[in-house]
Amino acid sequence: MKAQIAYSVGAIALTLQFVGCDRDKVSFAADIQPILERSCIECHTSAGEGTTASGFSVSDYASVMKGTALGPVVVPGSSMSSSLYLVIAGKTAPEIRMPPHHEESWAEGRGVPLSAAEIDMVEAWIDQGARDN
Description:
The chain has 133 residues and is an all-alpha fold. The protein is built from 7 helices and no strands.
C-alpha cells in the first residue's frame, strides 16, 4: 500500500513538472538539445542518413528550425502543426515515426522511441514558441 502511494505521489510530481508554471521553463539548450543528441543526432547530423535523405539536421538550434529540404518541421507555438512533434509522438503513419523503430534499426542499435516525458517536453517547448534559450 505504501509503495502504491509513493508511486502515485511520484507520478503526480512528474505530471506537475510538465503542467502549469514549470512548463514555461523549457529550454532548448538544457532540455531539448540533450533529447535530440541522445535520440536523433546519430542519423540527423551533417553526414547522417536522415540528413542525407531529408536535409534535416539536429546539430544545433538553427538547423532544427531550418527543417528539411521541404521546409520547417517546427511551427513555433503549435506542436500539432509541427512535424517534428508529430513524428516523435507517433501521430503519423508508423513508417515515418521517429526515431525509426523497426527490425532493421533495432539490429543496428537504433530505434528506441522517446519517453512520454521527453515527448511532452518537446511538445511544451514548441507550444511555448520554440525559443532558442
